[in-house]
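Exercise 7b. Backbone tokens:
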């Protein structure tokens, strides 16, 4: 399973979205032998999820039902654990358009935060582009690395834990675009310029 490559079948280890309704959904890590409790009853991962198709209607133990959806950056934005204030899909779509991103683009981002924008950027530049994202806070950087690995996109992203205003992005002359979401973005302009390609 990958957030950028659609898979038909739910597999052990996947992140899936349990959809009860537009105002009620949540992510679940699919694991053999595990159960998930919903207001409609229990979902047994081994029998109700693994091997079923994404989009399937699953009947829970109390007779109610849910849909199991393949994760997308948009669904992840609606369900991710908030480590910081996040950007939502409307703003994200404008950002990716204004940055003129496409498959194969290289983009630098600071800060990573909860990874809402990061997931959308990764999908936009896949399968041959790359995201270099810098997060000042060590635990947030580690959690972002873990989520990118679980979501099957770690080959498309490099997470660095440092102060972008002092140490930059760790790359030079590679980026097509740079996005700064930090308290004092003007302090990172020199590093942003250094990261950009001549025509970036």
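Sequence design result:
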């Amino acid at each position: 399973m990958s957030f950028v490559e659609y898979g038909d079948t739910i597999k052990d280890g996947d992140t899936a979205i349990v959809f009860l309704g537009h105002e009620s959904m949540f992510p679940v890590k699919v694991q053999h032998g595990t159960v998930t409790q919903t207001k409609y009853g229990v979902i047994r991962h081994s029998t109700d999820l693994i091997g079923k198709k994404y989009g399937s209607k699953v009947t829970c133990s109390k007779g109610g039902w849910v849909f199991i959806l393949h994760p997308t950056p948009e669904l992840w934005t609606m369900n991710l654990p908030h480590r910081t204030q996040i950007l939502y899909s409307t703003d994200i779509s404008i950002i990716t358009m204004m940055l003129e991103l496409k498959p194969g683009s290289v983009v630098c981002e600071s800060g990573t935060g909860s990874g809402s924008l990061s997931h959308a950027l990764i999908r936009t530049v896949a399968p041959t582009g790359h995201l270099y994202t810098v997060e000042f806070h060590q635990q947030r950087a580690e959690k972002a690395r873990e989520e990118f690995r679980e979501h099957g996109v770690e080959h498309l992203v490099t997470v660095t834990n440092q102060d972008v205003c002092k140490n930059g992005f760790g790359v030079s002359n590679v980026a097509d675009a740079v996005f700064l979401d930090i308290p004092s973005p003007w302090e990172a302009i020199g590093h942003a310029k250094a990261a950009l390609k001549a025509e970036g």
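Instructor comment: The mean pLDDT is 95. The chain is about 30% helix and 25% strand.
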